Structure formats: structure tokens, C-alpha cells
Amino acid sequence: MSACTDQALTLHAFVDGELDAVNVLAFERHLDVCDGCRDEIARLRVLRARLAEPATRFTAPADLRARVRAALAAADPAADQAALDPPQQAPQANRTVYDPLPGGPVAASVDRPATSAGRAASVESSPERAQSVVRPIRSVRRWSLVGGLGSLAAAAALVAVLYVPSAHVEDQLVASHVRSLLADHLLDVATSDRHVVKPWFNGKIDFAPPVVELAPDGFPLAGGRLDYIDGRVVAALVYHRRQHVINVFAWPASGSQTGLPSATTAHADGYTLMRWTSGGLQFWAVSDVDAAELARFRDAFEQRAATPTSESAPATNGGSQGRANESPVGRG
Amino acid sequence: LKQRFEEVVLPYIDAAYNVARYLTRDAAAADDVVQEAFLRAWRGFANYRGGDPKAWLLAIVRNCAFTWHTAAHSERTDGAIDVESLGDPFNETPEQAASRRSDANALQTLIERLPEPYRETLVLRELEELPYKEIAQVTGVPIGTVMSRLARARQWLIDATERPQ
């Protein structure tokens, strides 16, 4: 039983709600007498339901959002350049109905006053920090607020945290943590075997984060991924605590940060961040577990990272763990 | 102006990425296309005259994807649609092959195997939920063409999903 070929387009327009009332009535009368078209509509609805599932969509990766924001923030000086040298983009325009490209100089001259006004406004909103943060970083942060989960309330709360330069990092960490849960991008490498996770990072980042198994402490390792924080690629380790997820971000500490004490921040969005430094790396744990539990996690993590002996995983390649970095042990 | 851009256009980054990803069938290229599209959108934002911002942005994304395609396949002279070079389902990148092996992505892979004009029409309609009229504007073809492409794309997907693997 097949659908009527002469009704095919009407049938799709009917399903899409694109028919006007007269045609809807006419087609409904046709459906009353045509099993083929009814079956076809049923099949179409099944297909459309599957297509509508979130898994069918691709979601912008976290680092792309960061790159777009950074590129847009940097686009103001570039607008001057475009004004001087407009033809670079223009010839490529395709023949669509919308032509997005402006005449170049016009757009550039309109951009600039508006943008500096925007900057002035953003500086006003938190004057106490205005002098300590360089401009590009500020505008990146503004983007991250608008594009993600940020709110003015969060920004206001963060003004009060311990040391100034990291406030926007914390925003990014929380945003990244949440995105990792939302966007099905929790894990690039999904395994509880730290001997897989650790070598996976080799060659992807220029440092070797300690990967420890904390299942005996109640924090089983779930895997790892790469993320993008504060303008650089960082390692993210993912642990579970019952139904909760703990993201641990690690990247090299810059000189002035190595001596900082570990710190806890209750973020305005309800997440807890905990920072510590060890072995030249800085670590940020982000989770929705409470601060006490996150502190236990940090202690366990530090303790096992500090003693990379074979005691936690006697079965696999115990001997090579001490010099953990280079060779992809346990794979070959 | 920038603040308006942030509020009006930036929220569609997921839509932009989704379309770019299906048009290029390549994660890295989709990244580049989205980044370029937002820069172009920002430069053109002063000339933006209302209308659905999502459709406006997706039209730019589509242009950028064609630019990428032209650069990647230099034998092609313009943005003309070349079904032969795009429609071969067996000419997969390793990445597409990997995603085909994963059941969760089976439907994504089927969509990626649609020839180009059908693929973009289907994605704009089913995933981005644009009405026919806006799809016609974004893709620069009459509504009747949108309707017939959509019908064929859906029919192909129904056949492909009902066929035993």
C-alpha cells in the first residue's frame, strides 16, 4: 500500500503544518479514504520523531564557543583592517538571497563607537577590577557571560573571590563543567583504566597530568577529555561521586600561582570549585557535590598523585607507573 | 551594536555548528566554518535588516561552507552543487566511518549520506525547524523546490531506516 504520488508534496506540507486551512480540509478528506497516505504519514511521523531527538544534532564543542568569542572580541581592531582592505571577503559571496556582507568601510565606521560604548559600560559594572585586567580578557569574559550560563548576578558574586585574575577562569570552569554535562561531551576517552587515560593525553597537551584511580575512596574514574580554559588547552579528568560528576581541570601553573594556597569557592550558580597546586600544575575541581566532599576528593587525589606507587592497581604494569609520562603503557 | 549581536545572533551557535557540520561532514571544517561565519555575520550585522536572525545566520554559514567546499575541492569552480562528488556514500572519511559504526550515530550517518541539496533542506527543516519560506530564502531556490527536495530526502531516510541493516 503506497501513498498517492500526486499527493506527495501536499502530504509533506500537511505534516509540516504548511498547508492553508482549505487545503488541510481537502487533504483530511483524502486521508479518510486513502490508507496509503495514512500509512505514509505514520511513517513520516516516526522518522520526524527520530530526527527530533537531541542525539541527531551536533552541538558546538566548548572550545569552539571559546574561539568564536575570542575571535569576535578581537574583531574590532580587525574592522579597521577591513576598512582599509575590503575586497578580501566580498568576491566569495554566494548567490543566496541574504547577502550578509556589508560594504566594508560603512560597517567598520558604524562598529567602532558602539563597541567602545559597550566596553565603557562593562568597565563601569565592576570598577574595582577595572584596572587589574587587560582589555582583551575583559571582552572575552563578557562574551562568555552572554553566550553561556552566566548572569550578572554571577559576575557580581565573583568580584568578591579571593584573587582577582582568576574570576573569569572560574566562570569558564563552571561553564565548561555544565557544558560537559549538557552537550554530551563529558568524555573524549571513556574508561576507568588510568593506564588508558594517561597515555591518551600524550601528544595532545604539553604536560602530563597525574591520573589516579580513586575508586577505593568512592570517586571512580570515568575518563578524560580536552577542554579549553583561559586561552589554553587543558586536561579534564572526570570522576564520579555517586550520581554526581566531578570535573578536574589541570594545566601548568604560571610562576606567580605556584605558591598560592588552595582555595574553595562556592560559585553563585550552586557549583563548588576547589583549586590547588601540585607538581607545577594547577588543579581545579568543579562539581555540584558539597565543599566537604570535594575537599575529601582533593585530599585523596593529592595523596595518590603524590605517591604514584603500584599499590592501587597491582594487576597492571605496576613497575612503570613511577615514571608515568611518556610510554603508552598497557596498550601494546 | 555588539551587545545586540550577542543577544540576537550568538545564541544560535549550536544551530550554526549543526548545519556546518552536516554541510561539511567534517568536525574540524565545521569549526572553521562557524568561526568564519560569525566573523562575517558580525561584519555584516550593521546591514542586517530584521527577519529571522537564525535564518540570516544560517545563510551565512551555508555560504562559508560552500567557500570551504570550493577551497577543499579546487576542481570545482563555484558553489554549484555537484551531486556526483558529494553523494557517494562509500567515499567516507575515517571519521564518518567511525561514527557509522556507532549505533547512536546511525541516523546522523544516514543524513550525512544524503546528496547535498537534499541534506541541507532536510537539516534546515527537521533539525533547525525553519519554515519552507525561510529554507527557500536560505538556499536560494523556490519553495516548490524546497518541498520536492524535502519529500525526496525523507523518503530516502524512511527507506534507509526501514531496510534491514
Describe what this molecule looks like in 3D.
The complex is a heterodimer of chains A (332) and B (165). The longest helix of chain A is centred in the middle third of the chain and has 21 residues, at 105-125. A 7-stranded antiparallel β-sheet of chain A has the order 1-2-3-4-7-6-5, sandwiched between helices. Chain A has 11 helices and 7 strands. In chain A, strand 5 (263-266) and strand 6 form a beta hairpin. Chain A has 332 residues and is an alpha+beta fold. Chain B is 70% helix and 0% strand. Chain B contains 10 helices and no strands. Chain B has helices spanning 2-8, 13-24, 27-44, 53-72, 83-86, 94-101, 106-112, 116-127, 132-139, 143-162. The relative contact order of chain B is 0.12. The interface between A and B is large, with 54 and 66 residues.
List the helices and strands and how they pair.
The complex is a heterodimer of chains A (332) and B (165).
Chain A: H1 8-15, H2 21-33, H3 35-51, H4 62-73, H5 75-84, H6 105-125, H7 135-147, H8 152-158, H9 167-182, E1 189-190, H10 194-201, E2 221-229, E3 232-241, E4 244-252, E5 263-266, E6 272-278, E7 281-287, H11 291-306
Antiparallel strand pairs in A: 1-2, 2-3, 3-4, 4-7, 5-6, 6-7
Helix pairs in contact in A: 1-3, 4-7, 5-6, 7-9
Chain B: H1 2-8, H2 13-24, H3 27-44, H4 53-72, H5 83-86, H6 94-101, H7 106-112, H8 116-127, H9 132-139, H10 143-162
Helix content of chain A: 40-55%
- What is the tally of beta strands of chain B? 0
Distance between the termini of chain B: 52 Å
Number of strands of chain A: 7
Note the run of SSEs of chain A as H and E.
HHHHHHHHHEHEEEEEEH
Order of helices and strands of chain B: HHHHHHHHHH
Radius of gyration of chain B: 16 Å
Q: What profile does the largest beta sheet of chain A have? A: 7 strands, antiparallel
Radius of gyration of chain A: 27 Å
Low-confidence stretches of chain B: 75-92
Mass-distribution shape of chain B: globular
